[in-house]
Each structure stands twice: as C-alpha cells, then as structure tokens.
Amino acid sequence: MNKKDIIKTIKDYNLDKKEIIIIGGASLVMHDVICDTKDLDIWCSTIYCNYLLENYNCQLERINEFGKNAYIIENIINFGESFKPIDVDIIDGIKVSSLKDTYLLKKFLNREKDKYVISILEKLGDAAVSVATSYNNIDKYEEKDEKNQRKNVNFNKHI
Q: Three-state DSSP class for 86?
C-alpha cells in the first residue's frame, strides 16, 4: 500500500479519522519515509475497537506483545488498542504516529523485518525530527522508568 492506497482504504472502509491513529509501517509511508507497506496498522480506543468488531468482518489476528488482542479486517487493516502513540501528526487530515514514536515502536518490537526501517530512521536522525516538528513539538519523548513513572528523555538519545 502506498500513501494514496492508505488514504483510499480509510475512505473506502469509512473509518472515522477522529477515532484512529495510523501506526507502524503505514505511518512511515504517510511520512514519506518508505514508499509502501503490506497493510494498514491503526490504533483505536476500546470503544472504537468494539465498533469495528461489531460492524466489520474482523478476525483475531494474534495476541500481541502486551497480551492484547490484535484484529484484522479482510487481511488489509490491522487494529487494536495497543501501541498508542504519544505524539501524533496530522497528515492529509489523518492522525499519524510521529516518526519518533514509530521509531520507538519498531525498536521496541525489534523484529527482523523492521531492522532496515530502523536503520533508515537512525540515519535520518535530526532530519526526522525536523519533518515531524512541522506538525508538533517533539523535543522530548515521554517514557516510563523502571518504577513505571513518566520521565522525559531527549529524543536525540533514541535516534
């Protein structure tokens, strides 16, 4: 799926742009970091997840890394309530995970298939920050420390 396909899929499936955030590889496509991805990954709230489950042909795809259900609609749209981005950019009227949060998600998952994308984002470094800050201020990244309390970490430490 390229950027045009992602936007068309959201429209064709009548997904509520206020209720979803594009994450994963699709967010990198939306940010023009990569050209395409195999599917559309979205985060949504529990309420919207329930709406999708009741109104679309959904199947349980897997139990994710946090023990939460991840669902799929027609092998095209993956969704669930895990991996909610902290920073969100608006691209073409759609909420998209920031490059910073997408990098941190890919780094956390540490899957073999993500290593190339991680290396691209690490090479972008400050350029990735510049692209994302056109939508919001991402000088610092909020993460949790070992006591599960939020702390601010300089983004450049991660990229």
A: coil
